[in-house]
Amino acid sequence: MSTEADAVPRRPAPVHVPPMPSSPPAVSGPPAVSGVPAAPGRNVAAAVCTILGVGLIAGAAAGSWVTGGPHDRTTAQAAYERGATLWQTLPVDELFPVAVHGGAAGPGGADRDWTRTGVAPAEGCTGAFDPLLAKALAPVGCKRLLRATYTDATSTSVTTVGLLVTDADPSGMRALRKRFADENLDERTDLMPRPYAPRGTAAARFGDAQRASWRIDVLTDTPAVVYSVTGFADGRAGVPPQPAVRATAPGAATTAAQAGLGHDATALAERVARGYRDATHRTAREDEG
Fold first, then answer.
1. What are the start and end residues of every segment in region (Disordered) (predicted)?
2. 29 or 213: whose pLDDT is higher?
3. In sequence order, what are the beta bridge partners of 226?
4. What is the spatial distance between Cα 142 and Cα 87, in angstroms, rounded to a whole number?
């Protein structure tokens, strides 16, 4: 991942500058000292600077109170910014471990284990999502897409998990997350991620028609969208796809639910999201020394 082209820097948001007042407020100067009249211009400037200084101090104090302190805000901001570039240096085995164990991650609290079958080259997002999902994600941009595919311990199911690194600032990610939640975009069968099928592996026949469950998580503490999509390794098609949130619900009796495909999608997406978050905070602290 470190061999890919450098990420495109984000353009800073425009800063609103209030108009300058037509004339400074009238400020009376101090009395003359030792019979020498005070210079009016100098006294006015001193008074204006004093007023501005008090205002800035008060504003800074209020900002610290609202955000929980400048150190907390800076740490969070540093971690967010680190997430925009960390993909270039983070070892692939840290983001997508060769083997993943999910304690009580399967149906009925059963343990699950997955083995990585292949890692896609870091690239853009073209062709990675159904058209409507690509349109829904477009506002946050696509800086880089990282993907890997796993198979379960019995080679029955295959799951592609992806990390989309965006160009968005925190407000952009919050807006996208809100829209996904308000409109249930992560549950629509016409807005699904597409699989990555490494040749010569158990996932070689994993195509769009084999998709049976999926999950999409929009993160807000780092500029990333994490997703997963899962199906059967034998290439069977026609299984009605069901979002992971429904396929893991108590009492769910669909094919995707009974086979644990929703559990696969959930556990692997959560593992990648947690790993990337932890890495951004750790490296941000290391950068600060």
1. 1-35
2. 213
3. 163, 217
4. 13
DSSP conformation class of 193: B
Token pair of 12, please?
Answer: 């800073």
Average pLDDT over residues 44-65: 39
Asked if 85 contacts 266 with a C-beta cutoff of 8 angstroms, the reply is no
Average pLDDT, the chain: 82
Q: Is the pTM of this model over 0.90?
A: no
Q: Is the pLDDT of residue 234 over 60?
A: yes
| 228: helix, strand or coil | strand
Alpha helix (H) residue ranges in the chain: 40-67, 70-83, 92-95, 131-137, 170-183, 244-247, 255-258, 261-288
Q: Are strands 211-218 and 144-152 parallel, antiparallel or unpaired?
A: unpaired
Which residue, chain included where needed, has tokens 């609103």?
16
What is the pLDDT averaged over residues 101-122? 95
Instruction: Assess contact for 53 and 62: CB atoms under 8 A.
Output: no
pLDDT tens digits along 179-214: 999 999 999 999 999 999 999 999 999 999 999 999
Label residue 165 exposed, middle or buried (CB < 10 Å: 0-12, 13-18, 19+). Answer: buried
At which residue do the structure tokens 């249930």 appear?
Answer: 184
**235 token code pair:** 């290439």
User: What whole-number distance in Å separates Cα of residue 263 and Cα of residue 247?
Assistant: 8
CA distance 166 to 142: 5
**Helix, strand and coil percent figures for the chain, each rounded to 5:** 40, 20, 40
Q: Is 120 left (phi over 0), alpha (psi -120 to 50) or beta?
A: beta
| Tokens coding 169 | 């600032």
Largest CA distance in the chain: 101
